[in-house]
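Example record for the data management plan.
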Amino acid sequence: MLDAFPDAKLYTSLYEPSDTYPEFRDKEIRPSWLNRFAALRADHRRALPLLASTFGRMKLADADLVLCSTSGWAHGVTTDIPKLAYCYTPARWLYQTDRYTGRSRGQRALISTLGPALRRWDEQAAASVERYLTLSGAVRDQIAAAYGIEAEVVPPPLMFDSSGPQTALDGVDPGFLLCVARLLPYKNVDAVVGAVAARPDLQLVVVGEGPLLATYRAAAPANVLFTERVPDDVLRWLYANCVVNISAAYEDYGLTPLEALAFGKPSITLRYGGFLDTVVEGETGLHFDAPNAQKILGALDEWEHVRFSTDRLARHLELFSQERFASRLRAIAAEVA
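Corresponding structural encoding:
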């Protein structure tokens, strides 16, 4: 979005330069008062009770348009300027609480207490937006259900640079399965690990950090390797040398299949959400119907008998170019402004 509007100011709740993409460092970033507190910069979830009021009091002026990049709060900013919302999902913690919190009783209790008031705030915030955009057909349906608003799908582009240098991951030989996911309950990485545990002839490399890392690592079989976060050169090598990307997550978009496509690799994913847009069944990958080991094993068996066209993989990736995204976003912004 900042590439499409390079002179725009970016207002946000929290900004920790060392913990996010370096491309932001040459932009004009204006974080909220919450940014004074290191504990909140370290974990944004601690700010949950404060975020609605923080954005509600963030008054903006001196612009033709406010573009709200939002999954929970930014669309509630106070302004007389027309607002255009790009919604990644209606707030998971309000509308998909069980999937978001998993087994955390503390988080569920907090959301149960704050939920009714936050839902009222969220609905009012959505009603203040001139026009809604979103990233997939699945989220378009969620927005309609939550707000009664019809959103236009403008698929976000693949920003990962596949042409850069590659560095091999020590101890891993080419020909493995790859799973790139944060280690959170709704990502269902345990289901992928469970499937591969039943196939000792396969190796799985899991790239990701999160609160479930220690639990998953302790229970992992010998043919599963957890790598936590890796630099881009290692991630490029992993995509280039895997045989298939696999994900059992409840994803609103499904970005990792596009990253895999950039290296000519198909994906096996849950038949859900954004994966229905980013993975074409039988052409760029396969779907399974539930995030459990048995269904994933069935998809792995099918995958071993399917041959994917390199040309078809490349053509599908073209639909998610930066140029297509920026052009459509600028056109809509001009209409709204």
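Summary line stored alongside the record: The CA atoms of residues 33 and 262 lie 40 Å apart.
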